[in-house]
Structure formats: structure tokens, C-alpha cells
Amino acid sequence: MTGSSVHFLHRDWTELCFLAGDAFDVVIPSMAGYGFSGKPTAPGWDPVRMARAWTVLMKRLGYEKFTAQGGDWGAFVTNEMAQQAPPELIGIHVNFPGFAPASIVDALQSGRPPTELSGDELRAFDQLMFLFRNIPTQQMMAAHPQTLYGLADSPVALAAWMIDHDVASYGHIARLFVEGTPYGDLTRDDILDNITLSWLTNTGVSSARLYTELKGGFIHDLDIAVPAAVSVFPEEVFQAPRSWAERAFRNLLHFNALPKGGHFAAWEQPTLFSEEVRQSFRSLRQ
After folding, report:
1. Strands, E, within 21-136: which ranges?
2. What dihedral do alpha carbons 53, 203, 40, 132 form, nearest 10°?
3. Degrees, nearest 5: CA angle 45-50-56
């Protein structure tokens, strides 16, 4: 797929871009167990393994240099790619942070923020505390993914599961789906397309296994040297402060707080999102 604006149909992806002048090719692989990808038959398909697989994929496709972009689970894979730092990877962009200093990660266990936090850092800490106290669906998928048989037995159960979570974007999506309340560039058909993709491929349960595969929690103290960019959307589950981004990414090319958009920014605000990606990687173009 080639172009500067892509409207995504699924929420879990890593976008791999090959930059060439003013245009770039976009390769969007489905993660193991999601969408059009195969279902793992054995444990081990965690973000680390998928990061290695995406590098192999790009090399097999003939790309000698590429960048990677991720939101939601795609951000975990993108960060893993940057930590593995294959020579072909020249830059990354994430819109779900997934990073915080070690002091923050430790403080989340006790529930008491460090005393030296700035206003932005304290707000992000409070948002993370709310997240970890209100993620029953994620906890269920991490503990017993194979018991979620309703996702394979009923399209209504799958639809309810996919649009009803304690995250701001989900609330907007649910109101759009049920009441027709406008939200970003999404339509009710877009949401139905997303649910149908999981239903027809029977990936409701297999996609939940990734929550079991993840080890070490959702927030990490990263130290990445690959050139990186971060876009912060106002209705993401938490807004990462620039100070945390500068700590996680030693070569921070771009950091921007956007006026609108949430957890599924590429889906909700495709034009704004694609402009962010282009701006993030502009300095890497030859």
C-alpha cells in the first residue's frame, strides 16, 4: 500500500514505513492472532518475537531502510524493535507511550507518587493509577484468555467486548455506535467493519492471548537510541510528559501534544495522524 494517508480498520498494528522522497510505502502486518494473521499454536508470540518477525518481514520484502510506527499493542512492538535496533530501522514513532522512569514504575506499585514530580508528571501518574485500577477486561485476558468463548460464539458478545472499556475513546466509540453521536472521522460502518474483521476471522480469543504473553507490565523504563518521535493525543489513556519521552528516547526527533484524538488516533483522526507521522520522519528522508 502506498500513500500518505491510511484509514486503518483494526486497532492493533505496527505500521512499517519505507521513506522515499515525498511519499512512502506503508506495510501494515496483522499481529499474530489478530485480523488476517495466523493464530499461534504454541506460546511465545510476544512483542519481542513480533518485533524480530517484522524486521525479517521488511528485509524479505526488499527494504534496506525503514521506520516503524505503533499505537496500542503496535507501540509495544515498535519499542521492542527499537531496543533490538536492527541496522535497517532508522526511526520510530509511537502514539501510545508505554514508558515512564523507573521511579514512576515502582511508585505505581505503592500508589504513592514521588514528591519531585512536575504538574504534567503528576497528572500522568494519576492517569496511570486510574488505568491500572480500572482494567478488568485486560486482567481477564491476561489471566484466562481461552475462557472468553463468548467472543467466538456470539457477534453481539464480541461487539460489546470491543466497544465497552474504561477508556475515553471507547466511551466515544460506544456512543457513536449506539446513539449516533459524532466522533472524529469515524462512522458506525467503520466500527461494524472492525468488529466484523474479528468475527469473520474468529480472532476474538486468539488476539486476547497477547495479554498473557506480555511479561513485565505495560509501562517500562526504556533507554532507546534509535531516532524516535512521540505524539500525545488528549484522550489517550495517559498523556506522557516530554521529560519522560526525553528519558526514554535519547534521540527524540519530534514531540507534539495534539488538540484532539484518543487511544485509536490513526482510526479516529487519520488525517491528523498521518500528518504527525510525516512530520516525525521528515528529517530522516533522503
Report:
1. 23-27, 66-71, 89-94
2. 80
3. 130
For residue 160, report the phi and psi dihedrals to the nearest 5 degrees. Answer: -65, -40
Q: What is the dihedral of CA 134, 174, 235, 282, to 10 degrees?
A: 130
What's the pLDDT tens digit per position in 65-116? 999 999 999 999 999 999 999 999 999 999 998 899 999 999 988 888 988 8
Residue-range domains of the chain with CATH: 13-97+220-284 (3.40.50.1820)
CA atoms within 13 A on the CB side of 217: 16
Of the candidates 282, 270, 228, the one whose C-alpha atom is nearest the C-alpha of residue 20 is: 282
- Cell numbers describing residue 271: 488525517
Q: How far apart are CA 285 and CA 4, in angstroms?
A: 14
Query: Using an 8 Å Cβ cutoff, are 249 and 100 in contact?
Result: no
